[in-house]
Amino acid sequence: MMKEVKLIVSDMDGTLIKYPCGIYGSSWEAVAHAIGKGGKSERLLDYYMYHKDLYGAWVIEFAKLLTNVPTKRVTEKIFPTPYIDGVQKTFSELKSEYPQIKTGILTNGVDIVAKEVAKDLDMDFFVANELEANDGRFTGIAKCNVDLWKKDDALMDIAKKYNASADEICFIGDNENDIPCFDVCGYGIAFQPKTELVKRHATKSADDFSEIKNILKKLIE
To answer: Which of 15, 54, 86, 159 is most deeply buried (CB count within 10 A of its CB)?
Structure first.
C-alpha cells in the first residue's frame, strides 16, 4: 500500500454528473433552466465568474431567482440525474470492495442534487451549497457552504469530521477550482481535466471514469 486511504471525496458537477444545458452543464444551470431563467442565470455568471471574492454574493443573487418557486417544479425536471458514464458502476464496486473507506461529495453545486447523487451512489456524506426551502417552496435564500475558490477549507473540515489526515484523502475533480484540493490531499485524480494546469496539479488523470477504479486499486492495495 502506498499510503492509507480513509476518504474518497469527489467533486460533482462535471465529474460525476453533467446536465445537457447551460455553459457547464452544472446543477446550478439545470435549476435555472428548470424555471425558465437560464438566460438570467448566464448573465449573473458572466458578471460574477471572474470576481473570485464575490462567489458568495453570486450564490445569494442566484437564490433570489427561485423565490416562492415550488420545489417540485424544479425536481421534476432535474431528476433523474444525468450521470457520466461509469460513475455508478465505479462507486458501487468501490463500496463493495473497500467498505472501510468513506466516500462522499464536495461540491460548489446545489444541495438538492448532491443529496440525490450521494443517495444513489450509497455515499457516506455530501457537502454542497444550500437552497433554502419551506413548505414546498424555495424561499430565495441560500447558504454558501463551499466557496468556489476555497474548496480546500471544506475538504479539511471533512477530514476533521472523519478523523483523517490530508494525506489519507483521495480527491477527484475536473476543473481549476479543484486545484486547492489536489494541493492539500494525499492523492488527486483529475477526471477529464479542463485545463493542463488541472492535470499538472493532480497525481493522476483519467479520461474515462471506469479508469478511476484501477487507479485507486493501485493506491489502496
So the answer is: 15
